[in-house]
User: Fold this.
Amino acid sequence: MSKSVDIGKASLPATDVVFRTDHCALQQLFDRCEDMAKKNLQTFPGYRVLVEGSYYPNVWLETQPMGGEMYAKRNMEAALNNQLIFMENQREDGRMPGMISVLDGKLHADFAWFQGYCFPGPALNVYYWMKKDRAYLERLYDVLERFDAYLWKNRDSDGDGCLETWCVYDTGEDHSTRLAGAPYMWDGETPPSGIGQVPYESMDVMGYSCHGREVLSLIAWELGNGEAPHWRAKAEEVRTKIASYLWRPDKYACYDRDCNNEFMDVLVHNNLRVMYFGGFSQAMADEFIGRHLLNPAEFWTPMPLPSIAANDPLFRNIASNDWSGQPESLTYQRAIQALENYGHYAEITLLGNIYLSVLAKHSFFPQQFDPFTAEPSKAKDGYGPAILSALEYLSRLYGVHLCKDRVYWGGLRDADYERSYTQQWGEDRFVLESKNGMFTGSINGKQAFGASNGVTVVTGLRGQVLEIIGIEAAAVDVDMIIEGQSYRFTIKPNEVYAIDSGSAFSKRQVAFDYPFEVKNQ
Assistant:
Protein backbone atom coordinates (compact mmCIF):
# COMPACT_ATOMS: atom_id res chain seq x y z
CA MET A 1 0.00 0.00 0.00
CA SER A 2 1.02 3.60 -0.46
CA LYS A 3 2.67 5.53 2.33
CA SER A 4 0.74 8.01 4.43
CA VAL A 5 0.72 11.65 3.45
CA ASP A 6 2.16 14.06 5.99
CA ILE A 7 -0.69 16.57 6.15
CA GLY A 8 -1.18 19.13 8.90
CA LYS A 9 -4.80 18.35 9.69
CA ALA A 10 -4.76 20.66 12.69
CA SER A 11 -4.49 23.61 10.29
CA LEU A 12 -7.58 22.68 8.27
CA PRO A 13 -10.08 25.55 8.13
CA ALA A 14 -13.29 25.30 10.12
CA THR A 15 -16.30 25.41 7.80
CA ASP A 16 -20.02 25.80 8.32
CA VAL A 17 -23.21 26.65 6.42
CA VAL A 18 -26.26 28.53 7.72
CA PHE A 19 -29.33 28.81 5.50
CA ARG A 20 -32.46 30.75 6.44
CA THR A 21 -35.54 31.19 4.29
CA ASP A 22 -39.24 31.80 4.79
CA HIS A 23 -39.87 29.14 2.14
CA CYS A 24 -40.96 26.58 4.74
CA ALA A 25 -40.61 23.44 2.62
CA LEU A 26 -37.10 24.42 1.49
CA GLN A 27 -36.05 25.26 5.04
CA GLN A 28 -37.33 21.94 6.35
CA LEU A 29 -35.51 20.08 3.58
CA PHE A 30 -32.24 21.87 4.31
CA ASP A 31 -32.50 21.22 8.04
CA ARG A 32 -33.21 17.54 7.54
CA CYS A 33 -30.32 17.23 5.08
CA GLU A 34 -27.97 18.68 7.69
CA ASP A 35 -29.18 16.27 10.36
CA MET A 36 -29.08 13.19 8.15
CA ALA A 37 -25.66 13.96 6.67
CA LYS A 38 -24.10 13.97 10.14
CA LYS A 39 -25.32 10.41 10.65
CA ASN A 40 -23.11 9.30 7.77
CA LEU A 41 -19.95 10.44 9.56
CA GLN A 42 -18.18 7.32 10.77
CA THR A 43 -14.81 6.49 12.33
CA PHE A 44 -12.65 4.03 10.41
CA PRO A 45 -9.22 2.99 11.75
CA GLY A 46 -7.10 6.12 11.28
CA TYR A 47 -9.81 8.11 9.48
CA ARG A 48 -12.99 10.02 10.28
CA VAL A 49 -14.91 9.65 7.02
CA LEU A 50 -18.27 10.28 5.41
CA VAL A 51 -19.75 6.95 4.29
CA GLU A 52 -22.31 6.46 1.53
CA GLY A 53 -25.15 5.81 3.96
CA SER A 54 -28.44 3.91 3.90
CA TYR A 55 -27.57 0.29 3.09
CA TYR A 56 -23.96 1.22 2.31
CA PRO A 57 -21.74 1.66 5.40
CA ASN A 58 -18.46 1.82 3.49
CA VAL A 59 -16.59 4.20 1.19
CA TRP A 60 -16.62 3.62 -2.56
CA LEU A 61 -14.37 5.28 -5.14
CA GLU A 62 -17.36 6.39 -7.26
CA THR A 63 -19.11 8.25 -4.44
CA GLN A 64 -17.06 9.16 -1.40
CA PRO A 65 -14.18 11.28 -2.68
CA MET A 66 -16.85 13.35 -4.46
CA GLY A 67 -19.17 13.18 -1.45
CA GLY A 68 -16.42 14.19 0.94
CA GLU A 69 -15.47 17.14 -1.26
CA MET A 70 -19.09 18.30 -1.28
CA TYR A 71 -19.23 17.98 2.50
CA ALA A 72 -16.13 20.18 2.83
CA LYS A 73 -18.54 23.10 3.16
CA ARG A 74 -19.28 21.69 6.62
CA ASN A 75 -16.40 19.41 7.62
CA MET A 76 -12.93 19.69 6.10
CA GLU A 77 -11.54 16.76 8.12
CA ALA A 78 -13.98 14.32 6.53
CA ALA A 79 -13.46 15.93 3.12
CA LEU A 80 -9.70 15.39 3.32
CA ASN A 81 -9.95 11.90 4.80
CA ASN A 82 -12.31 10.80 2.03
CA GLN A 83 -9.43 11.50 -0.37
CA LEU A 84 -6.56 10.21 1.78
CA ILE A 85 -8.19 6.88 2.56
CA PHE A 86 -7.99 6.00 -1.14
CA MET A 87 -4.63 7.65 -1.77
CA GLU A 88 -3.00 5.82 1.13
CA ASN A 89 -4.46 2.45 0.19
CA GLN A 90 -3.46 2.47 -3.47
CA ARG A 91 -1.82 -0.77 -4.51
CA GLU A 92 1.87 -0.78 -5.41
CA ASP A 93 1.05 -1.43 -9.08
CA GLY A 94 -1.07 1.74 -9.15
CA ARG A 95 -4.53 0.21 -8.89
CA MET A 96 -7.01 2.11 -6.70
CA PRO A 97 -9.34 0.27 -4.32
CA GLY A 98 -12.95 0.24 -5.47
CA MET A 99 -14.26 0.00 -1.92
CA ILE A 100 -12.80 0.29 1.58
CA SER A 101 -14.58 -1.23 4.57
CA VAL A 102 -13.80 -2.21 8.14
CA LEU A 103 -13.51 -5.93 8.91
CA ASP A 104 -12.62 -7.17 12.39
CA GLY A 105 -11.56 -3.67 13.36
CA LYS A 106 -9.15 -3.26 10.45
CA LEU A 107 -9.32 -1.47 7.12
CA HIS A 108 -10.03 -3.76 4.20
CA ALA A 109 -9.41 -2.52 0.65
CA ASP A 110 -11.16 -4.32 -2.22
CA PHE A 111 -9.48 -4.44 -5.62
CA ALA A 112 -11.88 -6.75 -7.46
CA TRP A 113 -13.57 -3.85 -9.28
CA PHE A 114 -13.02 -0.17 -10.05
CA GLN A 115 -16.41 1.17 -8.93
CA GLY A 116 -16.13 4.41 -10.88
CA TYR A 117 -13.49 7.13 -10.53
CA CYS A 118 -15.10 10.33 -9.19
CA PHE A 119 -11.83 11.09 -7.46
CA PRO A 120 -9.24 13.25 -9.29
CA GLY A 121 -11.27 16.48 -9.48
CA PRO A 122 -12.63 16.32 -5.93
CA ALA A 123 -9.18 15.49 -4.57
CA LEU A 124 -7.69 18.52 -6.35
CA ASN A 125 -10.46 20.82 -5.11
CA VAL A 126 -9.67 19.83 -1.52
CA TYR A 127 -6.09 21.05 -2.07
CA TYR A 128 -7.33 24.59 -2.68
CA TRP A 129 -9.25 24.57 0.60
CA MET A 130 -6.40 23.36 2.83
CA LYS A 131 -4.01 26.26 2.26
CA LYS A 132 -2.56 24.58 -0.83
CA ASP A 133 -0.48 21.97 1.00
CA ARG A 134 2.29 21.08 -1.44
CA ALA A 135 3.03 17.67 0.11
CA TYR A 136 -0.57 16.65 -0.45
CA LEU A 137 -0.50 17.87 -4.05
CA GLU A 138 2.74 16.06 -4.86
CA ARG A 139 1.31 12.85 -3.42
CA LEU A 140 -1.91 13.26 -5.38
CA TYR A 141 0.11 13.74 -8.57
CA ASP A 142 1.93 10.47 -7.92
CA VAL A 143 -1.32 8.61 -7.18
CA LEU A 144 -3.03 9.80 -10.37
CA GLU A 145 0.00 9.19 -12.55
CA ARG A 146 0.40 5.63 -11.31
CA PHE A 147 -3.29 4.79 -11.73
CA ASP A 148 -3.28 6.12 -15.29
CA ALA A 149 -0.25 3.96 -16.04
CA TYR A 150 -2.06 0.98 -14.53
CA LEU A 151 -5.10 1.55 -16.75
CA TRP A 152 -3.10 1.66 -19.97
CA LYS A 153 -0.93 -1.30 -19.02
CA ASN A 154 -3.84 -3.57 -18.10
CA ARG A 155 -7.14 -2.37 -19.55
CA ASP A 156 -6.47 -2.18 -23.26
CA SER A 157 -6.16 -5.92 -23.74
CA ASP A 158 -6.55 -5.85 -27.53
CA GLY A 159 -4.25 -2.86 -28.00
CA ASP A 160 -6.76 -0.79 -29.98
CA GLY A 161 -6.37 2.35 -27.86
CA CYS A 162 -9.71 2.03 -26.04
CA LEU A 163 -9.83 1.10 -22.36
CA GLU A 164 -12.09 -1.70 -21.18
CA THR A 165 -14.45 -2.60 -18.37
CA TRP A 166 -14.29 -6.23 -17.31
CA CYS A 167 -17.13 -6.56 -14.79
CA VAL A 168 -20.39 -4.96 -13.69
CA TYR A 169 -18.89 -3.20 -10.68
CA ASP A 170 -16.11 -1.57 -12.70
CA THR A 171 -18.67 1.10 -13.64
CA GLY A 172 -20.98 0.61 -10.65
CA GLU A 173 -24.03 -0.33 -12.75
CA ASP A 174 -25.45 -2.96 -10.43
CA HIS A 175 -27.87 -5.40 -12.11
CA SER A 176 -28.02 -3.39 -15.34
CA THR A 177 -29.69 -5.23 -18.20
CA ARG A 178 -27.11 -3.83 -20.61
CA LEU A 179 -24.39 -5.82 -18.80
CA ALA A 180 -26.23 -9.15 -18.73
CA GLY A 181 -23.86 -12.09 -18.42
CA ALA A 182 -20.89 -10.05 -17.25
CA PRO A 183 -19.25 -11.07 -13.96
CA TYR A 184 -20.03 -8.75 -11.07
CA MET A 185 -16.40 -8.70 -9.93
CA TRP A 186 -13.08 -9.54 -11.53
CA ASP A 187 -9.82 -9.39 -9.61
CA GLY A 188 -7.53 -10.78 -12.28
CA GLU A 189 -5.16 -8.76 -14.44
CA THR A 190 -6.18 -10.55 -17.62
CA PRO A 191 -9.67 -10.06 -19.03
CA PRO A 192 -12.50 -12.57 -18.61
CA SER A 193 -13.12 -14.67 -21.69
CA GLY A 194 -16.23 -16.49 -22.82
CA ILE A 195 -18.38 -14.76 -20.17
CA GLY A 196 -21.16 -12.62 -21.59
CA GLN A 197 -19.85 -9.94 -23.95
CA VAL A 198 -16.91 -8.76 -21.84
CA PRO A 199 -14.48 -7.15 -22.09
CA TYR A 200 -16.39 -4.03 -23.13
CA GLU A 201 -14.75 -1.09 -24.86
CA SER A 202 -15.88 1.44 -22.29
CA MET A 203 -16.82 5.11 -22.42
CA ASP A 204 -16.65 5.14 -18.61
CA VAL A 205 -13.10 3.83 -18.30
CA MET A 206 -11.94 6.12 -21.08
CA GLY A 207 -13.49 8.89 -19.01
CA TYR A 208 -11.47 7.80 -15.99
CA SER A 209 -8.23 8.31 -17.90
CA CYS A 210 -9.33 11.56 -19.53
CA HIS A 211 -10.32 13.06 -16.19
CA GLY A 212 -7.18 11.85 -14.44
CA ARG A 213 -4.92 13.23 -17.15
CA GLU A 214 -6.68 16.59 -17.22
CA VAL A 215 -6.25 16.92 -13.46
CA LEU A 216 -2.62 15.85 -13.77
CA SER A 217 -2.11 18.77 -16.16
CA LEU A 218 -3.64 21.17 -13.62
CA ILE A 219 -1.47 19.80 -10.83
CA ALA A 220 1.64 19.97 -13.02
CA TRP A 221 0.90 23.62 -13.71
CA GLU A 222 0.42 24.29 -9.99
CA LEU A 223 3.65 22.46 -9.11
CA GLY A 224 5.57 24.08 -11.96
CA ASN A 225 7.15 20.77 -13.00
CA GLY A 226 6.87 21.44 -16.73
CA GLU A 227 4.58 18.46 -17.41
CA ALA A 228 1.32 20.37 -17.90
CA PRO A 229 1.47 20.41 -21.74
CA HIS A 230 2.27 16.68 -21.76
CA TRP A 231 -0.78 15.77 -19.70
CA ARG A 232 -3.09 18.11 -21.61
CA ALA A 233 -2.01 16.41 -24.83
CA LYS A 234 -2.51 12.96 -23.29
CA ALA A 235 -6.03 13.91 -22.15
CA GLU A 236 -6.82 15.16 -25.64
CA GLU A 237 -5.67 11.83 -27.07
CA VAL A 238 -8.36 10.11 -25.01
CA ARG A 239 -11.03 12.61 -26.08
CA THR A 240 -10.08 12.08 -29.70
CA LYS A 241 -10.41 8.31 -29.33
CA ILE A 242 -13.79 8.64 -27.60
CA ALA A 243 -15.02 10.81 -30.47
CA SER A 244 -13.67 8.59 -33.24
CA TYR A 245 -14.39 5.17 -31.76
CA LEU A 246 -17.31 5.36 -29.31
CA TRP A 247 -19.27 8.41 -30.48
CA ARG A 248 -21.82 7.69 -33.21
CA PRO A 249 -22.44 10.89 -35.21
CA ASP A 250 -25.64 9.46 -36.66
CA LYS A 251 -27.02 8.89 -33.14
CA TYR A 252 -25.49 11.90 -31.34
CA ALA A 253 -24.30 9.77 -28.43
CA CYS A 254 -21.57 7.41 -27.26
CA TYR A 255 -22.08 3.66 -27.23
CA ASP A 256 -19.83 1.01 -25.71
CA ARG A 257 -18.52 -1.84 -27.86
CA ASP A 258 -18.58 -5.53 -26.94
CA CYS A 259 -15.78 -8.13 -26.94
CA ASN A 260 -16.06 -8.35 -30.71
CA ASN A 261 -15.69 -4.57 -30.95
CA GLU A 262 -19.28 -4.26 -32.19
CA PHE A 263 -21.44 -1.41 -30.91
CA MET A 264 -23.79 -2.25 -28.03
CA ASP A 265 -26.93 -0.53 -29.25
CA VAL A 266 -28.21 0.69 -25.88
CA LEU A 267 -28.71 4.41 -25.17
CA VAL A 268 -27.37 5.00 -21.66
CA HIS A 269 -27.01 7.90 -19.25
CA ASN A 270 -23.30 7.09 -19.11
CA ASN A 271 -22.87 9.81 -21.71
CA LEU A 272 -23.53 12.20 -18.83
CA ARG A 273 -20.77 10.46 -16.88
CA VAL A 274 -18.32 11.07 -19.72
CA MET A 275 -19.31 14.73 -19.52
CA TYR A 276 -18.53 14.64 -15.77
CA PHE A 277 -15.07 13.36 -16.74
CA GLY A 278 -14.66 16.03 -19.43
CA GLY A 279 -14.44 13.47 -22.21
CA PHE A 280 -16.74 15.19 -24.74
CA SER A 281 -16.11 18.16 -26.96
CA GLN A 282 -18.48 21.09 -26.52
CA ALA A 283 -20.31 20.12 -29.70
CA MET A 284 -20.79 16.53 -28.52
CA ALA A 285 -22.14 17.68 -25.16
CA ASP A 286 -24.54 20.13 -26.82
CA GLU A 287 -25.80 17.43 -29.17
CA PHE A 288 -26.33 14.83 -26.45
CA ILE A 289 -28.16 17.30 -24.21
CA GLY A 290 -30.30 18.79 -26.97
CA ARG A 291 -31.23 15.52 -28.66
CA HIS A 292 -31.32 13.04 -25.78
CA LEU A 293 -31.02 14.42 -22.25
CA LEU A 294 -33.96 16.82 -22.68
CA ASN A 295 -36.04 14.33 -24.68
CA PRO A 296 -39.14 13.30 -22.63
CA ALA A 297 -39.21 9.93 -24.40
CA GLU A 298 -35.63 9.17 -23.34
CA PHE A 299 -34.05 10.90 -20.34
CA TRP A 300 -36.34 13.85 -19.53
CA THR A 301 -39.08 11.75 -17.96
CA PRO A 302 -41.31 13.36 -15.26
CA MET A 303 -38.48 12.45 -12.87
CA PRO A 304 -35.52 12.89 -15.25
CA LEU A 305 -32.30 10.96 -15.73
CA PRO A 306 -33.17 7.25 -16.02
CA SER A 307 -30.05 5.10 -16.31
CA ILE A 308 -31.18 3.66 -19.65
CA ALA A 309 -33.34 5.71 -22.00
CA ALA A 310 -37.00 5.13 -21.15
CA ASN A 311 -37.82 4.09 -24.73
CA ASP A 312 -34.91 1.65 -25.02
CA PRO A 313 -35.81 -2.07 -25.17
CA LEU A 314 -33.48 -2.76 -22.22
CA PHE A 315 -35.10 -0.18 -19.93
CA ARG A 316 -36.62 -1.68 -16.77
CA ASN A 317 -38.51 0.23 -14.05
CA ILE A 318 -37.23 -1.80 -11.09
CA ALA A 319 -37.63 -0.30 -7.61
CA SER A 320 -34.45 -1.60 -6.03
CA ASN A 321 -30.71 -1.21 -6.49
CA ASP A 322 -30.82 -1.54 -10.27
CA TRP A 323 -29.20 0.57 -12.99
CA SER A 324 -31.52 -0.65 -15.74
CA GLY A 325 -33.86 2.30 -15.59
CA GLN A 326 -34.86 4.20 -12.48
CA PRO A 327 -33.17 7.61 -11.99
CA GLU A 328 -30.42 7.42 -9.37
CA SER A 329 -29.59 10.09 -6.82
CA LEU A 330 -25.95 9.43 -7.66
CA THR A 331 -26.67 10.51 -11.24
CA TYR A 332 -28.18 13.77 -9.96
CA GLN A 333 -25.04 14.27 -7.87
CA ARG A 334 -22.72 13.81 -10.85
CA ALA A 335 -24.95 15.78 -13.23
CA ILE A 336 -24.00 19.08 -11.59
CA GLN A 337 -20.34 18.87 -12.56
CA ALA A 338 -21.16 17.23 -15.89
CA LEU A 339 -23.34 20.16 -16.95
CA GLU A 340 -21.10 22.84 -15.45
CA ASN A 341 -18.17 21.46 -17.46
CA TYR A 342 -19.98 22.49 -20.63
CA GLY A 343 -21.71 25.68 -19.54
CA HIS A 344 -25.22 24.19 -19.25
CA TYR A 345 -26.17 26.03 -16.07
CA ALA A 346 -29.85 26.51 -16.91
CA GLU A 347 -30.28 22.73 -17.17
CA ILE A 348 -28.86 22.44 -13.65
CA THR A 349 -31.62 24.78 -12.52
CA LEU A 350 -34.24 22.61 -14.21
CA LEU A 351 -32.90 19.45 -12.57
CA GLY A 352 -32.39 21.11 -9.19
CA ASN A 353 -35.94 22.45 -9.06
CA ILE A 354 -37.38 19.01 -9.77
CA TYR A 355 -35.05 17.16 -7.42
CA LEU A 356 -35.53 19.52 -4.49
CA SER A 357 -39.30 19.61 -4.86
CA VAL A 358 -39.52 15.80 -4.88
CA LEU A 359 -37.32 15.45 -1.80
CA ALA A 360 -39.19 18.23 0.00
CA LYS A 361 -42.52 16.54 -0.75
CA HIS A 362 -41.48 13.13 0.58
CA SER A 363 -38.91 14.10 3.24
CA PHE A 364 -36.97 10.98 2.31
CA PHE A 365 -33.49 10.44 0.84
CA PRO A 366 -33.64 7.45 -1.53
CA GLN A 367 -31.25 5.82 -3.92
CA GLN A 368 -33.76 5.72 -6.79
CA PHE A 369 -37.05 7.18 -8.10
CA ASP A 370 -39.81 6.00 -10.36
CA PRO A 371 -39.17 7.94 -13.59
CA PHE A 372 -42.88 8.34 -14.39
CA THR A 373 -44.42 9.14 -10.99
CA ALA A 374 -41.36 10.63 -9.23
CA GLU A 375 -42.15 8.42 -6.24
CA PRO A 376 -39.06 7.49 -4.23
CA SER A 377 -38.25 3.81 -4.35
CA LYS A 378 -38.45 3.61 -0.62
CA ALA A 379 -36.08 1.29 1.09
CA LYS A 380 -33.81 2.68 3.80
CA ASP A 381 -33.58 6.42 4.41
CA GLY A 382 -30.33 8.40 4.59
CA TYR A 383 -28.70 7.69 1.23
CA GLY A 384 -25.70 10.02 1.10
CA PRO A 385 -25.76 10.94 -2.60
CA ALA A 386 -29.39 12.05 -2.20
CA ILE A 387 -28.57 14.21 0.83
CA LEU A 388 -25.48 15.75 -0.75
CA SER A 389 -27.23 16.29 -4.09
CA ALA A 390 -29.91 18.30 -2.31
CA LEU A 391 -27.34 20.39 -0.44
CA GLU A 392 -25.33 21.00 -3.62
CA TYR A 393 -28.34 22.06 -5.68
CA LEU A 394 -29.31 24.36 -2.81
CA SER A 395 -25.85 25.94 -2.80
CA ARG A 396 -25.84 26.38 -6.58
CA LEU A 397 -29.35 27.85 -6.86
CA TYR A 398 -29.83 29.66 -3.55
CA GLY A 399 -26.47 29.99 -1.89
CA VAL A 400 -22.68 30.10 -2.09
CA HIS A 401 -20.32 27.60 -3.69
CA LEU A 402 -16.52 27.80 -3.65
CA CYS A 403 -14.49 26.13 -6.40
CA LYS A 404 -10.74 26.62 -6.41
CA ASP A 405 -10.22 30.41 -6.35
CA ARG A 406 -13.76 31.35 -7.38
CA VAL A 407 -17.01 31.98 -5.53
CA TYR A 408 -20.38 31.23 -7.15
CA TRP A 409 -23.37 33.15 -5.78
CA GLY A 410 -26.73 31.58 -6.69
CA GLY A 411 -29.48 34.10 -7.31
CA LEU A 412 -32.35 31.91 -8.49
CA ARG A 413 -35.72 33.64 -8.72
CA ASP A 414 -37.79 32.42 -5.81
CA ALA A 415 -41.13 34.25 -5.93
CA ASP A 416 -41.35 36.61 -2.95
CA TYR A 417 -39.43 34.41 -0.52
CA GLU A 418 -36.54 35.90 1.41
CA ARG A 419 -33.37 33.99 2.15
CA SER A 420 -29.86 34.24 3.50
CA TYR A 421 -27.03 31.78 3.02
CA THR A 422 -23.78 32.03 4.97
CA GLN A 423 -20.69 29.99 4.13
CA GLN A 424 -17.97 30.17 6.77
CA TRP A 425 -14.57 29.08 5.47
CA GLY A 426 -11.81 29.50 7.99
CA GLU A 427 -11.55 33.21 8.73
CA ASP A 428 -13.68 34.18 5.73
CA ARG A 429 -17.44 34.60 5.76
CA PHE A 430 -19.42 34.64 2.52
CA VAL A 431 -23.00 35.90 2.91
CA LEU A 432 -25.73 35.92 0.27
CA GLU A 433 -28.97 37.72 1.06
CA SER A 434 -32.04 37.84 -1.18
CA LYS A 435 -35.07 40.09 -0.71
CA ASN A 436 -37.62 41.81 -2.94
CA GLY A 437 -36.19 40.32 -6.14
CA MET A 438 -32.60 41.43 -5.48
CA PHE A 439 -29.65 39.61 -3.92
CA THR A 440 -26.31 40.74 -2.57
CA GLY A 441 -23.00 39.01 -1.99
CA SER A 442 -20.72 40.08 0.85
CA ILE A 443 -17.31 38.84 1.96
CA ASN A 444 -16.28 39.53 5.55
CA GLY A 445 -18.92 42.23 5.83
CA LYS A 446 -18.01 44.07 2.61
CA GLN A 447 -20.60 43.97 -0.15
CA ALA A 448 -19.12 42.80 -3.46
CA PHE A 449 -22.23 43.32 -5.62
CA GLY A 450 -25.98 43.64 -5.76
CA ALA A 451 -28.03 42.06 -8.55
CA SER A 452 -31.57 41.22 -9.53
CA ASN A 453 -32.45 37.56 -9.10
CA GLY A 454 -32.22 35.19 -12.03
CA VAL A 455 -28.44 34.86 -12.39
CA THR A 456 -25.38 33.37 -10.76
CA VAL A 457 -22.63 35.89 -10.04
CA VAL A 458 -19.03 34.64 -10.03
CA THR A 459 -16.40 36.51 -8.01
CA GLY A 460 -12.86 35.99 -6.84
CA LEU A 461 -12.19 35.13 -3.20
CA ARG A 462 -11.87 38.83 -2.38
CA GLY A 463 -15.03 39.86 -4.21
CA GLN A 464 -13.98 40.98 -7.70
CA VAL A 465 -16.89 40.30 -10.05
CA LEU A 466 -15.67 38.01 -12.83
CA GLU A 467 -18.79 36.71 -14.60
CA ILE A 468 -22.58 36.70 -14.53
CA ILE A 469 -24.34 33.51 -15.70
CA GLY A 470 -27.88 33.07 -17.00
CA ILE A 471 -29.38 30.21 -14.99
CA GLU A 472 -33.10 30.62 -15.68
CA ALA A 473 -35.07 28.89 -18.44
CA ALA A 474 -35.86 32.25 -20.10
CA ALA A 475 -34.07 35.51 -20.73
CA VAL A 476 -33.76 37.74 -17.65
CA ASP A 477 -33.39 41.51 -17.39
CA VAL A 478 -30.53 42.13 -14.99
CA ASP A 479 -29.82 45.17 -12.85
CA MET A 480 -26.45 45.17 -11.06
CA ILE A 481 -24.53 47.44 -8.74
CA ILE A 482 -20.78 46.96 -8.38
CA GLU A 483 -18.76 49.42 -6.33
CA GLY A 484 -21.44 52.05 -6.77
CA GLN A 485 -21.74 51.70 -10.54
CA SER A 486 -24.97 50.49 -12.12
CA TYR A 487 -25.31 48.07 -15.02
CA ARG A 488 -28.36 46.87 -16.96
CA PHE A 489 -28.49 44.08 -19.53
CA THR A 490 -30.55 41.09 -20.66
CA ILE A 491 -29.04 37.64 -20.22
CA LYS A 492 -30.21 34.43 -21.89
CA PRO A 493 -30.13 30.88 -20.52
CA ASN A 494 -26.54 29.61 -20.45
CA GLU A 495 -25.18 33.00 -21.48
CA VAL A 496 -22.19 34.44 -19.63
CA TYR A 497 -21.61 38.17 -19.20
CA ALA A 498 -18.47 39.91 -18.01
CA ILE A 499 -17.82 43.39 -16.63
CA ASP A 500 -14.87 45.34 -17.95
CA SER A 501 -13.94 49.02 -18.25
CA GLY A 502 -17.30 50.11 -16.88
CA SER A 503 -19.45 48.12 -19.29
CA ALA A 504 -21.20 44.75 -19.36
CA PHE A 505 -20.79 42.52 -22.40
CA SER A 506 -21.73 39.01 -23.51
CA LYS A 507 -18.73 36.74 -23.23
CA ARG A 508 -20.10 33.41 -24.48
CA GLN A 509 -23.26 31.31 -24.71
CA VAL A 510 -24.02 27.64 -25.21
CA ALA A 511 -27.21 26.09 -26.52
CA PHE A 512 -30.37 25.79 -24.45
CA ASP A 513 -32.77 23.41 -26.19
CA TYR A 514 -35.59 23.37 -23.66
CA PRO A 515 -38.40 22.63 -24.09
CA PHE A 516 -37.42 19.74 -26.32
CA GLU A 517 -38.20 19.78 -30.01
CA VAL A 518 -37.47 16.96 -32.44
CA LYS A 519 -34.54 17.93 -34.68
CA ASN A 520 -33.77 16.84 -38.19
CA GLN A 521 -31.23 14.07 -38.25
